[in-house]
């Protein structure tokens, strides 16, 4: 974790270390197995190309994670002249947390949300949507921004980016394998007797499943950790709780088309872009609103006890 005044979280650090180790192992295994399958079928050059492509995608995702995420949300970077109040709020929070100031962005969408991204505190960005700016008070927005800055300080956005990279590579290989099946991919692997496309597809699907589970292992905890750290930094947990309630309520009136367009970024948002509670919450990237409000209520009681 970066050296800041955000509350340290040993549980988050331990989970991130475990997830990074397992993700790295899964990613290396994926590339190695795919290369071995192709090489054993006499397709050595294609095997080397697959390995290089996988490493290239992972590096690009890591190096350009802030820009990639902003483009995905069609967010634009704003200057202090364009958004003076937003910049002033982030300036105060960064000074209080003793951390570098990230780039500041705004995404033009009715979906009320915010996210942080970047490979390090020195190369990061915090983005809010026009939808969230319309519904939150200054104190509520400050709570949301403190939550997002906590993600940057804890470096958990880097872990989530790494997780998404492994999933993207596995997904690309799965699609490529299916493409091979459609266009004469019946050639057999010399060792297993399986068609090459089927062997690659199976390995990719297993890797994708492992990545999916690892993201869930970390994602819910990191949101609770950011809620906790942000609330202690501002000293106003009730403001963040009020913001979360407004955001969740507003999701129910956002057009479905806009929600669907934003959902690929759910793992990075402060609240998932979904309506209501249904089976999708069983695999949600976030804890329930009730869990988050209960934690913030405990923090409020703790802060009052300290003041007393």
TrEMBL record:
Membrane topology type: Multi-pass membrane protein
Main localization (coarse): membrane
Cofactor binding note of this UniProt entry: Binds 1 zinc ion per subunit.
Cofactor: Zn(2+)
Molecular function terms, GO-annotated: metallopeptidase activity
Gene3D superfamilies per record: Metalloproteases ('zincins'), catalytic domain
Record-annotated active site: 148
Localization annotation: Cell membrane
Presence of the UniProt keyword Protease in the record: yes
Chain positions recorded as Zn(2+) binding sites: 147, 151, 223
EC number(s) on file: 3.4.24.-
Ranges where the Peptidase M48 domain occurs: 80-298
Residues passing through the membrane, by range: 12-39, 45-63, 194-215
Pfam family, one: Peptidase_M48
Swiss-Prot/TrEMBL keywords: Cell membrane, Hydrolase, Membrane, Metal-binding, Metalloprotease, Protease, Transmembrane, Transmembrane helix, Zinc
PANTHER family in alphabetical order: PROTEASE HTPX (PTHR43221), PROTEASE HTPX HOMOLOG (PTHR43221:SF2)
Protein family (similarity comment): Belongs to the peptidase M48B family.
Protein name: Protease HtpX homolog
Source lineage: Bacteria, Bacillati, Actinomycetota, Actinomycetes, Propionibacteriales
Gene behind this protein: htpX
């Amino acid at each position: 974790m970066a050296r800041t005044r955000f509350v340290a979280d040993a549980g988050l650090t331990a989970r991130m270390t475990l997830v990074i180790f397992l993700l790295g192992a899964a990613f290396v295994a994926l590339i190695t197995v795919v290369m071995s399958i192709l090489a054993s079928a006499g397709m050595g050059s294609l095997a080397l190309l697959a390995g290089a492509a996988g490493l290239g995608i992972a590096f690009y995702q890591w190096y350009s994670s802030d820009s990639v995420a902003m483009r995905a949300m069609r967010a634009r970077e704003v200057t202090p002249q364009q958004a003076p109040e937003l910049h002033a709020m982030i300036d105060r929070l960064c000074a209080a947390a003793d951390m570098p100031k990230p780039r500041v962005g705004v995404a033009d969408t009715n979906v009320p949300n915010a996210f942080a991204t970047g490979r390090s505190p020195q190369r990061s960005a915090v983005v809010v949507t026009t939808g969230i700016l319309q519904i939150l008070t200054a104190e509520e927005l400050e709570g949301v921004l403190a939550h997002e800055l906590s993600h940057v300080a804890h470096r958990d956005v880097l872990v989530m980016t790494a997780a998404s990279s492994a999933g993207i590579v596995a997904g690309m290989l799965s699609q490529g394998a299916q493409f091979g099946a459609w266009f004469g991919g019946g050639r057999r692997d010399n060792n297993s007797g399986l068609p090459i496309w089927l062997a690659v597809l199976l390995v990719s699907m297993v890797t994708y499943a492992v990545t999916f589970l690892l993201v869930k292992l970390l994602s819910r905890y990191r949101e609770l950790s950011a809620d906790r750290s942000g609330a202690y930094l501002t000293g106003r947990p009730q403001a963040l709780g009020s913001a979360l309630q407004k955001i969740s309520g507003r999701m129910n009136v956002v057009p479905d088309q806009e929600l669907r367009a934003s959902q690929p970024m759910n793992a990075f948002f402060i609240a998932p872009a979904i309506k209501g509670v249904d089976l999708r919450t069983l695999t949600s990237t976030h804890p329930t609103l009730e869990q988050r409000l209960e934690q913030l209520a405990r923090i409020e009681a703790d802060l009052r006890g300290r003041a007393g």
